[in-house]
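Worked problem 6 (solution included).
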Amino acid sequence: KRPKNVAPTRHRLRYLFPEGEALPRSTVTAEWLTAKLYAYPGTAGTLRGVHSAWTVFFDYCTRVRKLFEANPMATVDRPPAPASVVRFYELDVVERIVDAQPDAQRRAFMAIAYGAGLESGVIRGLYRSDLKPADREIHAPGTKTHTRQRMARVSGWAWPIIWRYAKDLLPTARL
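Solution. The predicted structure is:
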């Protein structure tokens, strides 16, 4: 459906069906697909994407083209989600990370990230006017939809670092 998905999907299907090789329909079983899936090179996240691509393809083959009585991927277990890479640091480590930044702008950036829990894409779009010093909060517009609006409370240790950097900026200045 999306142009950026065409090449990866084609590659994932070519892995199953190499160009120029005939493959009898009877070969395509849940067992065969499971073996092929777990032999596919890549991470757990990649295998989940491959599973999704194959499921959609075989759904099309089953429902639209009527090549199978049932989708052979229906009984192939989806690989487990990869372990989260999110790490939580104690405050002393966070302060060392922030203090190690080369300049005031970067320290403020990291203080917002760690002290308000905002993602980098949101931080890069902030303006000085998004800081609410009276409440020690940051207006953090959402990146998913234009209507997603939130106020992020800033931790006490982070606010002085952020405010020291931003207080003299014009309201229309990007942080």
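Discussion: The longest strand covers residues 137-139.
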